[in-house]
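Shape is hard to put into words, and the shape of a protein is harder than most. The fold becomes a row of whole numbers, each drawn from a learned catalogue of backbone shapes. The outcome of that step, for a single protein, is printed below.
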Amino acid sequence: QVQLVESGGGLVQAGGSLRLSCAASGTIFSINVMGWYRQAPGKQRELVAAITSSRSTDYPDSVKGRFTISRDNAKNTVYLQMNSLKPEDTAVYYCNARVLTTLGYVELWGQGTLVTVSS
């Protein structure tokens, strides 16, 4: 069974930092794009950061310069370093990956990890 398992969420004061991790496990041949999304209460899920297999990255303006996405292909793991956190960054953060498995390419989602930024 292929799955994504996240870790690293928690409570932090405004201006602080957190690092999220997401590891893919199971029979995996390769991973294409990996990304992080977030969903705040009453809002739609939005892209926070994405990284390709060649490590090209993409960020929305709301997090550019504060968040950094990286990946370790040998460990099938993606990270999100979040600095200068703001209360509006409070949300459940989800890992996403397009993974090549024995069934072909499948899109996976992690279970979500809560990030709470206090003012």
Q: What stands out?
A: The mean pLDDT is 96. The first strand starts at residue 3 and ends at 7.
